[in-house]
Amino acid sequence: MKLVNTAQMIEIEQASEHLGVSTRQLMENAGWAIAEHTSQIAGDIRHRRILFLIGPGNNGGDGLVAARHLANQGAMVEIIMPVANPANEDNYRKATDAGVIGLDPGKWYEAINGASIILDGFFGTGRSRTIGEPFKQILETAGALKRKRMPPVILAIDIASGLDSDTGEADPHTLPADYTLTLGYPKTGLFNSHTAIALSGEIRVLDIGIPPNLAENISSEIIDERWAAGALPERPRYAHKGTFGKAMVVAGSPNYTGAAFLASAAAMRTGAGLVTLAIPRSLQMAVACRQSEITFLPLQEEAPGQVSINAAEEIKSAIEGCNVLLVGCGLGQKEETATMIKSLLFDSQRPLPRTVIDADGLNILANVTQWQSKIQPGCILTPHPGEMSRLCKLSVSEIQSDRIGTAGRAARNWNQVVVLKGACTVIASPDGRIWINPFSSPVLASAGTGDVLAGVITGLIAQNLAPFEAACLGVYLHAGAGCKVEQEAGRAGALASDLLERLPRVIKNLNQMRYN
Questions:
Q1: What is the pTM of this model?
Q2: Domains defined for the chain, CATH in brackets
């Protein structure tokens, strides 16, 4: 599913008009879709008190159409419309004819406090200035209700009022939504900043009848279930373990044996045929007792559990025949470890297979001047915002305020695939493609889940997926496993290892969709 900015959305709507789908028809379609999704979210809306905040632009027009349809379905619908727009007069008349109540200016406070559902249609993608009165006070009053024991459900029409649809920057008076009903295509600003993700709630994309081919040249996408199902590696019945590839995972140190286990087990759970864990010799049994299917390359040690500088040569000698290498999970950053990793990654005379660099591998790179020119192109880098901060020499807040832009620039400048982790993970390719995972779960905000993600991506590359596709599918599968854990066990107390057994189930469900 395409991800668009404001200019692209305007261009698509204009092209749609030229193809015979008028702005008026799109508005009618949008209003109907908004009403339908409101009914789905709220359940039985008959006699429910629903309040629409209607702005002067097309966003308000969409809201008026939706208000009419909900009134026709038996809801008690009221609207607050501080500024009238002649372009919306016809939709306003149709709404009031259907029983929608247009409130006098002095009645808005009572209406806000009495509503069980509020739809925010003040400003959409066209807002370009600071929110002023009376909109400011109305939004503040509605926002204050979120602190009540039983607050109303707030739905944003297209995008929350005050949220920039390109940058994700938020006006201080932006009304936080429980759901965002975005129209036609999701907007870049919904995913570009940590703030926007927090303010948008659950995002639902509503089909409003735009001809689908009008967005085909846009390179930014939201990963969806249909694409993920089609991207899964084939699993023929006549296969043997070599069919599904060989992966080597270089991981582990005395404090982080769990990272080595999680990464290598995740690669196997995702379908890799053979996974070899290269780990300091004295730590081997700590992992072997948890995962008997993994094979091992015991590495030389400087001290118990501390990898030797000479281990790079052992890895290079053993890596022949492997499809993919994962480096970094739980390695630590001791001087000997850093020297070994640099020897492994910076050896231009002996190219590595496809390489995923995670965790301490990234932290070691960040301390090397001009590291970008020393590693081979086409690697997959999987930083969280803190690691990205060290790699880019930017603050975490700068990264979180422009996640899409930061990941895209890094991928192009470094000539690497970049997976910027966090809620709504961003995957960027050197060729300009930027894909977003639309799902997030607090289950994934715990120690070890990043090691699982690195292992999932590694397992997919082992099965001959290209780096960018493997990164996108890996992020999707990882998030899907997190959502399954949340559904089964709740949001708190889940462990990274809980994701492992859910991964095959997520893959199975996608395969069933693919072949049914």
A1: 0.94
A2: 6-218 (3.40.50.10260), 227-231+238-515 (3.40.1190.20)
